[in-house]
Design brief:
Layout lengths: L4 E2 L2 H4 L9 E2 L2 H4 L4 H16 L1 H25 L6 E4 L2 H11 L6 E6 L4 H13 L3 E5 L7 H17 L3 E8 L11 H11 L2 E5 L11 H4 L3 E5 L11 E4 L21 H4 L5 H6 L12 H8 L2 E3 L2 E2 H24 L16 E5 L9 H15 L1 E2 L1 E5 L2 E7 L6 H20 L7
Parallel strand pairs: 1-10, 2-13, 4-5, 4-6, 6-7, 7-8
Antiparallel strand pairs: 3-9, 8-9, 10-11, 12-15, 14-15
Helix pairs in contact: 3-4, 5-6, 7-8, 13-15, 14-15
């Protein structure tokens, strides 16, 4: 019987970071424990031992279905609604590129939309006439206020003679990292007849999710970020009512059917089972990652409860500690709902005249390459912020170390900005 691993130093022994390296940027690329890495390598070795046998008769038949069943059970969704894709970007792009837009259609998003998805919308709008309407919202708004702004926006679109076809919003946005009231936004979409497309890149493994209860029109989430699978691995959820809209994969796979054939039977799952030649072995690690997570403990809590509770608590305390060291603030609203996740945002004490994306890049490089501390400094609305990710292999001491290094780097930068690594 497996023994429990306490969050912090004990759990950290199961990850393979370089000695002295502090990874406070888990949200960007994720990582996975040694035990899951061993499972991954086993599948890679099997794939090379008998490539044809493995891909044709193991991967595309039994193994992919087992992985899909595992993630479907985890997010409380029917297996026939869940397929696996390399990452959230592929999933969202698949949805957007399959939908047909008309000139009167509008796609709604928030100003915090992931930049790559904004690029996809801009590209598609060059090819098909439709409107992209972005909601510029104050990041300190309460959940109630965010939902009111969203609903009024939808109503105004209708009054202006346009049709809101699709709304894209996050579970947790990327930069800044804030938890959105995605459950209520999904309900508003449903009541207004608008398709809801949820970018859940940071959702699976970080939040408790019940997709059947949430009932979005499209949902995508990475597994390699917060669930501890190898890169690249993500789940795309499309309920049965919308599967006829997703006719092609990216790229178009072997099981594509022309309209007349597709209309006779549902081809959604088969379509995603054979998409070009890729390394699908990360998908097969989902069951192993879920089993490993059951071993984690935090106080009296175990498994998912332990991981999610520990990360949220560490993010709260760690973010405030760094803010205290820097003499600034944590980004949140009065209800503290924006920071109800495993990431936190702290404003850096840098005057607006010295704030830019280039400076953010240089700060990240300096912290990472010179001081062995991975953080995510970014430029947002005339200020520099740092996003810090909590994870079970970290403790409060790591946030303190990052805060002190940040303060040192910023003091040096204030005196001589050439000291930053460009």
């Amino acid at each position: 019987m497996a023994t429990f691993l306490m969050c912090g130093q004990e759990a950290a022994k199961h990850f393979v970071f370089d000695e002295g390296y502090i990874n406070l940027n888990h949200g960007s690329y994720g990582t996975h424990p040694i035990e899951v890495r061993s499972v991954h390598r086993k599948y890679q070795e099997r794939a090379e031992a008998r490539p044809d046998t493995f891909v044709r008769y193991e991967l595309r038949t039994r193994l992919l279905k087992e992985a899909r069943q595992a993630i479907a059970d985890y997010v409380h969704a029917p297996i026939e609604t869940c397929v696996l894709v390399p990452n959230a970007s592929t999933g969202i792009d698949t949805v957007l590129r399959n939908l047909i837009f008309k000139p009167q259609d509008a796609v709604i998003c928030f100003s915090t939309i992931y930049p790559a998805f904004m690029n996809t919308l801009d590209y598609l709008a060059e090819r098909s006439e439709f409107s992209i309407l972005k909601i510029e919202h104050d990041l300190y708004l309460s959940d109630d206020e965010i939902c009111k702004v969203f609903e009024k926006f939808l109503e105004k679109i209708s009054d202006d003679g346009k049709k809101a076809k699709l709304a894209i919003f996050d579970t947790i946005t990327s930069l800044p990292a804030i938890r959105m009231p995605f459950e209520r936004l999904t309900e508003i979409c449903r009541s207004h007849g608008v398709l809801s497309c949820i970018d859940g890149a940071h959702g699976v493994g970080q939040l408790h999710l019940n997709i059947s209860q949430l009932d979005p029109d499209f949902f995508v989430s990475n597994c390699h970020k917060w669930l501890f699978t190898p890169r690249s691995c993500a789940v795309l959820y499309v309920p049965a009512r919308n599967q006829h809209l997703i006719r092609s994969t990216l790229p178009t796979g072997f099981n594509f059917r022309k309209k007349e054939k597709a209309a006779k039977s549902n081809n959604y799952v088969a379509n995603f089972a054979a998409v070009a030649t890729t390394d699908d072995t990360p998908y097969l690690c989902i069951p192993a990652a879920l089993e490993w997570r059951k071993r984690i403990a935090f106080g009296e809590k175990t498994g998912e409860e332990a991981i999610i509770s520990y990360n949220k608590e560490l993010a709260r305390k760690g973010g405030q500690l760094v803010a205290d060291i820097l003499g600034t603030e944590v980004l949140d609203n009065e209800e503290l709902t924006l920071g109800d996740c495993a990431m936190t945002n702290v404003r850096l004490p840098v005057g607006s005249e010295k704030c830019s994306e280039k400076v953010a890049d240089c700060l990240n490089r300096t912290m990472n390459r010179r001081y062995n501390v991975a953080v995510n400094v970014y430029y947002y609305r005339q200020a520099l912020w740092v996003r810090l990710s909590a994870q079970i292999y970290l403790e409060l001491q790591h946030f303190e170390a990052a805060g002190r290094v940040l303060r040192e780097v910023l003091m040096t930068y204030a005196v001589d900005d050439s000291r930053l690594m460009d």
